[in-house]
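Record 1 of the preview.
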Amino acid sequence: MAISVVMPALEMAQETGKIISWLKKEGETITKGQPILEVETDKAVVEIEAAADGILAGVISKEGDVVPVGATIAWIVAPGEKPPAESATPAQTGRTMSSASAASVSAAPKPTPASSSASAAQSGPQISPKARRLAKELGVDITRIKGTGPNGTISSDDVTAAAAAGPAAAPTPAVATEPLSGIARLMAERTTQSWTQAPHFFLVRDVDAGALNAAREKFGPAIERDRGVKLTHTDLLVALVAKTLTKHPKMNASWMGQGIRLNPAINISVAMAVKDGVVGAVVPKADSTSLADIAVQRRDLTERARSNKLKPADLADGTFTITNLGMYGIDAFNAIIAAPQAAILAIGKISDRVVPVNGQPGIRPMLTMTLSSDHRVVDGAQAALFLADLYEALTKPDSAL
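->
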């Protein structure tokens, strides 16, 4: 029996996905779990795996097509079997149409001219559900937006552009703009939403990184010898932050709109730079994962992020984020929370500074940590206690690991 290959939904608000490349050609034999194509979503470029053994057939959508979530793009058939004759053509999938728009076009009866005008007057501009939510969040008047989607439908891109343009003003000469990729567009939307909706507050603490450096020198050689990976400061931070979060479940919680969800697992999301943006690659259950396994997973995630080979599971279910810009020479910075998470920890570079040592000036390798927290989930005292325990773990990593 033929099995359809559909554009997957990798997050709740996703409307479409862009086909980057087919890793298998039509007519090739494939096995279950084998990557068959690359798709760019709002989060990243990810590989989509085959759902069954068989032969790839009836490929409908080509590379570069933007396809609504849930639309069939190909089939997996048995030897000698043909794909269903009613397979949709690329035009029928409405590959530039949002999933909500596609559903409404196919399901709704065709109105008469009279009812069409009446309906339009009552409902206002055509707009996708995602775009309507975004317009409300950004305070954009949708009546002044000219939609660029099918039949003038207003998309989230149109809303973002209108918000950036500000209130209507006198016409100005056209200025060249750089189009955003799906990742960059989502990053712009999400950081705007998080910054405007989550009441951020920031706590800063300096810590002597001498013990952290010593831990890297102590554990690093054995891990490199046995597992073939270099231990980094980020690996140590993932392990120590995860251990500390076991004592502070509120810092590992999520804001769910009307209340707080205490997440049962501690999944550390590590911010990684990719082309056109940043993604949060997740080390799951980091509190119960060995330091060596964390190092191996972090290296694997980093390599696949750089080559656009991340999978949907690599980006899912993060509960706390670490972002480290120390390798870029940054001393300290404030990071925007990755909603719905409650907090994000920003790490600067380790640098020698003159500080008091036993009452006398001394030079020590110092590290600045900046914790951004959502005041809807935690208060200042709770965040400060977490940072104090993390400080203790960083100064005594041997006992914490």
